[in-house]
Amino acid sequence: MWSERLLAVRQLVWLVSPEALSAARSLLRDAPQAISLQDEMALHELVCRAAWAELRFSLMLRHARILEKLAKLSGEFAWQIEAQQLLANAHYDQRRYDQSLTYWVSSLELAQGSDNYAALCEACLGMSNILLADQQTQEARQVLELACNQAMRSGLNRLSFKAGLYTANFLAQQNDLAGLAQCLLWLKQLPVDDIEETLLIDVENTRARLLCLQNDTQAAESVLQVATARAHACRYLWGSLQAQLIAADLAATRGQLNVAIAAGHSALNAAHEANGCHFLPHDFMLKLGRWQEECGLLDEALATLEQWHTRQQANLLVRHEHKCRIAPSLLRQLSLLLQVMQLKDENRNLRSQLQSNFVPEYAT
C-alpha cells in the first residue's frame, strides 16, 4: 500500500500537479519506521522537486541537505550527485551563485569519475546559468555545447530536449532569431512522451517569444494561450510568469499599451507573491515605465523608473558581491574540469573517426 502511494506521488511530481507538494510531505510523515534508505532518499528528492516547482526554495534546500546526508550514508555516487545538483539549483534560484557553483563543480567531479553522461549534462546546464548571470557569454556557449554533447552520449531523449531548451533560451538572450528558430524546429522533432510538463511549457513560451519578435502576433497569441493554460493547470509559477511577460511584450508590439501595462502589473504582482522579483528581466521595469510614459501616466512612470533604478543598483551590488565571494581557486578548478571534458570529447570523436575509417585487410 505504501509503495503504491510512493509511485502515485512520483507521478504527481512528474506531472507538476498542484497536489504534488502536499502529497509528498504527507507521504513523508506517514513513512513506516522500517523504511529503506533508498525509499527515504526518493521521498526527500520528491519533496525537493515539488517545492522547486512552487518556488519554495527554503523548503527545497532543507530537504536537499537531508538527501545529501542520506546519500553519503548510502555511498552511492548517483544519489550524491542528485543531492548536490538539487542543492546547486536551490542556491542558484536564491542568487547564491558562489555556493551554487561549488555544488555544480563537486557534482561534475563525481560525474566525471563515473562517466555519468547524464549528470555531466545537468552540471553543464546548471553552470551555464551562472555564467550567463555573470554575463560570461562565450564561456556559457562553450558549456552549453559540452552539455549537448553529453546529452547525445547519454542516449536520453529528455536530456537532449532539456539541453536544446537551454540553448534556445541562450539564443533568445543573444537575439539570434535565426539560430533560435532552427533550435526550436529541432526540438519540435523530438519525442515528448518522457518530457516533464514544465519543460514543454517552457518551450511553448520560448516559441511564443520568437513569434512575437518576428511580429507574427496572431500566431504568438495562439501559442501563448496554450502555454498560459497549461502553466495554470499545473500551478507552474515560473511558466505563468514567463507567459505574462511575453503577453505584455505582445500587447506592446500591437500598440495596445494599456493592455501591455495591465499585463506588466499582473506579472509584477505574481513575482511579488512568489517572492521572485529577481526572476524578472533586468529591463522589465524600464519597459513598463516607458509604456506608462507614452500613455501619459507620468506619476506612475516616474515611480516605476525609480524602482527600476533601485533594482539596477541592487543587481550591480549583487554582481559585485558575487565576483568577490567566488574564490579564484574555484574558478580555476572549473576551467580545468571543462578543459578535461573537452579533451575527453575530442578523444572520443577521434577514436570514433579512426574506427569508422579502419578497413580490415581481408575486406580489401
Can you describe this structure?
- The chain is globular.
- The chain contains 17 helices and no strands.
- Helix 3 packs parallel to helix 5 (77-93).
- Among the domains are: 1-26 and 41-87, no CATH class; 114-131 and 139-187.
- By secondary structure, it is mainly α.
Which strand-content bin applies to the residues? under 5%
Termini gap: 64 Å
- As residue ranges, the low-confidence spans are none
Q: Tell me, rounded to a whole number, the average pLDDT.
A: 87
Discrete helix count: 17
What is the helical fraction, as a range of percent?
A: over 70%
String of helices and strands: HHHHHHHHHHHHHHHHH
Outline type: globular
- Major pleated sheet: none
Q: Please tell me how large the radius of gyration is.
A: 22 Å
Task: Give the secondary structure arrangement, pairings included.
Elements: H1 2-14, H2 20-29, H3 37-53, H4 57-74, H5 77-93, H6 97-113, H7 117-133, H8 137-154, H9 157-173, H10 177-188, H11 197-213, H12 217-233, H13 237-253, H14 257-273, H15 284-294, H16 298-325, H17 328-357
Helix pairs in contact: 1-2, 1-3, 2-3, 3-4, 3-5, 4-5, 5-6, 5-7, 6-7, 6-17, 7-8, 7-9, 8-9, 9-10, 9-11, 10-11, 11-12, 11-13, 12-13, 13-14, 14-15, 15-16
